[in-house]
Structure formats: C-alpha cells, structure tokens
Specification:
single chain, 276 residues, mainly alpha, 73% helix
C-alpha cells in the first residue's frame, strides 16, 4: 500500500505544482476510493500533500519571479481565516455530503476553465493600466516568459472580489482538504486577471500556509494516518520539485486544458462516491 501511495503522490505533486492546485486533488480521491479511507482521513492526507507541494514548488517559482509575493501575503489573511472555519465545519458535515460538495464544485470549475482556456500569451497594451488599489498595495509586477522570450507586465484587478473569493477558498481547503488551489487559481486568473502562470505560482506559495492552519484540527481529532501521510509527503515533495522546473516551459493554454480534464474526472468520481 505504501509503495502505491508514494507513486501516486509523486504524480500528484508533479501535476499539482504545474497547475497550482495542490496534490490533494489527486491524493484524496485515490485514498478514499482505492484504499477506502474515510473522507476525514483522506482530507487530512490531502492537507499534508498540499503543504509538501507548496514547499517543493515555492522556491523555484520565486526564483523565476513567477510568484507575486505581495499578492500572496495580502490574500493569505483571507484564506487562513477561511481554512480554520472550514476545518471546524468538516466535523459537522457527513462524509457523503462532503464528497458531493467536492464533486459538484470541481465540475463547475472545470467548465469555467474550459470556457476561459485561451492563453494569456498575447500582445500587451503599450501602457499597463494599474488600478488605484493595486498601486497602493503594489499588486503589480512582471516576469520573463521563457516561451515568448520577453518580459510580461501585469496588474491585479477587482481586488475586493479576489479577497472575498479567497475566504471561500480557505473554507473549501479546511472543509475538503484540497488546499483550495482550484479556487485560488480561478480567483487570481479569472477575477483578478493575473497571468495564468503567475496565478498558479502564487497559488502554490499560498497553499501551504492555508493547509497548515487547518491540519492541526484534523490532528486533534485523530484523523491522521501517519504511515500514509509520510508516504504522501515524500512523494509529493519529489513530484512538485520536478513540476516547478518544467512549468515555465509549457504554454498556458495547455496547462488550462490539463487543469479542466483533471477536474472533470475527479468531479465525476467524487459525485459517484457521494451518491452510492
């Protein structure tokens, strides 16, 4: 069992770091469906995988200037508050309800990602428009795109909407153990209009802190399966380190398509588990 969990965790860490969604998206369904872990135990292992993904990918993305640290730190307050609240609520909801919520949300987000699959690799305006709040909070920046071989400038938009979405993302993290990367990426990319690669890198940076705020509650309830979580941590750390080195060389539209396909598959499996 441990060897299988280790292999799946390497894959989860690789995909999670590429898409900014955390390894929990793959680890949770695998543990709950294949090894029959209850949802709370699987969610706890998912949080461990999220922390490992964040640790493995964050340093590489910061080095490549893909992570916007100020945006991540500003939004982290909302996700931590939501993460603690979600972990508390997880002890109230039955397992099947959690599975249904997980599946429905993933299915909805997969359709959003397909709808917005166009790459952000496009011609930029001559003068970047920076909003008043983005200027005050310094939520703008630039990074070097290795595919286009040029600097890309960007600025956060709809900052209040993004902050509120991050509270919801934190609640989903604590409630479902998914690290809420799917919601963070959508908030950063769709609501705040940051480039997709910046969104995934910043999401990876934020996920670890959000998950750390939630996992203590799972630990206190006795939901941690230590040998499985150890294998998850090691595997995800290896996979996420590899993924962080590969991601800058992949076109954004391919990342978005991969993101949507993974969400659809996982959503169907979790909805089925919740219904039967």
């Amino acid at each position: 069992m441990i060897a299988q969990i280790l292999v799946v965790s390497v894959i989860a860490g690789f995909i999670g770091s590429l898409l900014g969604i955390g390894g929990g998206l793959i680890v949770i369904p695998f543990l709950s469906i294949v090894f029959k872990f209850n949802m709370h135990q699987a969610a706890a292992a998912g949080l461990v995988s999220v922390i490992a993904t964040s640790s493995g990918a964050a340093s590489a993305y910061v080095k490549d200037r893909l992570t916007h640290l100020r945006t991540g730190m500003f939004l982290q307050l909302a996700t931590v508050i939501g993460g603690v609240l979600g972990a508390i609520l997880s002890g109230i909801f039955p397992t099947k309800i959690l599975s249904l919520i997980f599946g429905i949300l993933l299915l909805y987000n997969s359709f959003l990602m397909i709808k917005n699959r166009k790459s952000d690799e496009k011609i930029q305006p001559a003068i970047l428009q920076i909003s008043k709040w983005a200027k005050k909070l310094k939520l703008y920046g630039r990074y070097f795109d290795k595919i286009q071989n040029r600097e890309i400038e960007y600025s956060a938009q709809n900052i209040i909407g993004g902050f509120l979405m991050m509270i919801f993302a934190g609640i989903m993290s604590g409630l479902l153990g998914i690290g809420s990367g799917i919601f963070k990426v959508l908030a950063l990319d769709t609501i705040m209009k940051l480039p997709f690669k910046v969104s995934t890198a910043t999401s990876n940076f934020m996920m670890g802190v959000t998950a750390l705020a939630s996992i203590s509650i799972y630990l206190a309830r006795g939901d941690i399966v230590y040998d499985a979580c150890g294998a998850v941590a090691v595997g995800v750390l290896i996979g996420s380190t590899i993924g962080a080195r590969v991601m800058p060389y992949i076109k954004s539209r391919y990342l978005k398509i991969a993101f949507a396909l993974i969400l659809i598959y996982t959503a169907v499996e979790m909805i089925r588990k919740g219904l039967f």
